[in-house]
Amino acid sequence: MTIRALLFLALVPGTALHAEIYRWVDADGQVHFSDRRMQGAERTGIPTAATRAPNPPAATPPEADEAAFLGPYTAFEIVAPGANETLTQDKSDLAVSLILDPPLLEGHRVEAVLNGVAVPLANAATQFRLSGASFGSHRLQVQIRDADGDLIARTALQSVHLRQTQAPQEPQEPGLLR
Q1: Do 26 and 72 belong together in one domain?
Q2: Of 23, 62, 121, 133, which is most buried, counting CB atoms within 10 Å of its CB?
Q3: CATH at 115
Q4: pLDDT digits (tens, 9 = 90+) for 43-59
Q5: Does 137 map to a domain?
């Protein structure tokens, strides 16, 4: 009796690999699968570990990506300063203008991310000024978070360069060094 049970159990997994599965679509457009042949059914195979497509890679969390992520918005991007733009100015403040459509949804808040540091914004304006940005190169992104702090949308990450206006220099006479 034990030998028959072991033999039976040894054969069962193998039979599943060779089972025939039939697929058909009924009059309502519903797809059906069965191990019994039905009128109009086509034979399909059972995917095995060797033939099964690998699981798709896990989606990268939005925070790990530098690309834009619109979420529920049809448009969300930084229009000024432009990507990789060099601004020459007296102050190191950075004026930012956005396109956001539809307007900020209830419960959502805007924050700027300058060089990886989040800067919450007091109002939901699409134009604001980041003060205290030093002269030099920066990486800028704007994000929208919900009331729980979860990321809802973000602009593409872009570089911007702030250069200080230089005072005019006195003309020098040729050959004279000071």
Answers
A1: no
A2: 133
A3: 2.60.40.10
A4: 765 544 444 444 444 33
A5: yes
- How far apart CA 152 and CA 137 sit, in angstroms, is 27
Total domains in the chain come to 2
78, exposed or middle or buried, with CB in 10 Å at 0-12, 13-18, 19+? buried
Within this chain, do residues 67 and 36 fall inside the same structural domain, yes or no? no
Any domain includes 55: no
pLDDT tens digit sequence for 110-145:
898 888 888 878 776 788 888 777 888 889 999 988
CB neighbour burial string for 6-42, b if at least 16 within 10 angstroms, e if fewer: eeeeeeeeeeeeeeeebeeeeeeeeeeeeeeeeeebe
Does the pTM exceed 0.70?
A: no
d(CA 125, CA 24): 55
176 belongs to a structural domain: no
pLDDT tens for 2-29 read 555 544 555 555 444 455 676 667 777 6
**Which stretch of DSSP H or E encloses residue 8?**
helix 2-18
* Backbone conformation region of residue 20, classed left if phi is above 0, alpha if psi is from -120 to 50, else beta: beta
